[in-house]
C-alpha cells in the first residue's frame, strides 16, 4: 500500500508487508504518536493468610496446591479494580522468588485476546479457583453465552424481510452463474491449533515510540534473540527497533530519514501518503494499523478507501491480504456495505455482480460475501436476486456507521507499476 503522513501531532505510516492489524496481526511496522509515556499501571492486591504469602514452600489453595496449573479458571482483579473470570494460559517463575513463586499469563474470558496479560498471584482470587473443569462442557457454555450475545446484537440491528410488493418495487436480478462463490482458504484444524499454541502469549509487552509508550495487543514473530525482551524501542522515522534505550539514542544520532519511506503520491491539507504498492498476489492492501491515540478518527477507513482508489487507477479489482484480524474484518465489512448499498440506492435498474465490481474495484467474492451476510440475496422464482428495499438498506447503512476521512482523488498523483514499466 502506501504510507500516510501528517504533521507532528498527526503522524501515521503504513507499508506493504505482513503486519497487524488487519491481517492477522504480527509485525509492528507502522507508526503514529501514542499516549504519553507513563509507568506501567500496577494493580496491587493483598494475600490473605489462607491464600498464601511469600515464596518458598508448598502453599495450599482451594482444590490443590500452588502453583496454579495451566488451564485453571479463576477470578482476577483487572485494571478497573473489579474481578473478572480468567483462564491461565501460561506461567513462569519470578526472578528471585521461591520454587512456587510464579506469574501467570491469563485470558479474560469476557474480553478479546488483545487484553491477555501477565499477572501476579496477588491479583488472583484463589477462593474462586475451579478444578476438574470439563473443557468441552466449559467451551460449550462459553459458546452459548457468545451466541446469546450475538443474538442480542442481531436483534438490535434486525432488518425486515422484503414482502412481495417491496421486491417488485425495486429488484435487482442476477443470473445463477453470478452467484457462485469461492471460499477463502483457511488453516486446517491441526495447523490452526499449532498457530494458536505458538502465538498464545504476547512476547513483547510494550513499545516505546518517540516520547510515547504503547501496550501491544498480540504476539509478534520477532527473531529468537528478542524472546526475553518485554519492551522494544522504535525509531519513529525508519521504524528500526532496539532492546535498549541507549541503542536507540545512538541510532537517532545517525538516522537521517525524516519522513516515511517511498515516494509521496498524495497530499491533501495536512495529510500525506507515501508509495510502496506492489503485490504479486494482487492484494491492494497488505497491512493497516492505527495506533491507539489516532483510533476512531477515520484514518483506518481512509486507508481502506485509498487502497481501492489505487485499484481503480490500476484498472483492476483489489482485495486485502488474508487472513483478516477481527477488527480488520469489521472495518472492511463496514466499507463494503457502505459502498455497495450507496450504489444500489441510486441504481434503478438491473445490475450484475461484475458491474458492481467494475464500478467499485471490489473483488466479486467480497461483494457476494457482503450481500449474503446482509441477507440481501434471495432465491425467488428460480433465480437469485438482490433485495434492495430502501428501508432495509437504510438500516444496514446505519449499522455500518460513517465513513472515514474523505479521499480527494484529484490529489492522487501516482502511476501504476505496469505503466511505469
UniProtKB/TrEMBL annotation:
Residues 11-21 have a biased composition (Polar residues). It is an enzyme of class 2 (transferase). It comes from the Eukaryota. InterPro entries: Acyl_CoA_acyltransferase, Chromo-like_dom_sf, Chromo/chromo_shadow_dom, HAT_MYST-type, MYST_HAT, Tudor-knot, WH-like_DNA-bd_sf, Zf-MYST. Its EC number is 2.3.1.48. The active site is at 321 (proton donor/acceptor). This is Histone acetyltransferase. It comes from Stephania japonica. The lineage of its organism: Eukaryota, Viridiplantae, Streptophyta, Embryophyta, Tracheophyta.
